[in-house]
Amino acid sequence: MYYTDRGIEELEQRRGEEEVSLSWVAARLQEFVDDNPEFEIPIERLATWLARLDDLDED
Asked: pLDDT value at position 58?
């Protein structure tokens, strides 16, 4: 198991039952980047990937 998988698993275990808006997620990602600017590029790539999922399904 990769180190990052543990964070994903923890997220699912702790908050998996919650419903949140994508606006809420976007705000949390922006807060994270503001606090950790060295992660801006991977977070932007993740956000772009999430935003374009429908486009990927159509290809």
From this structure: 67
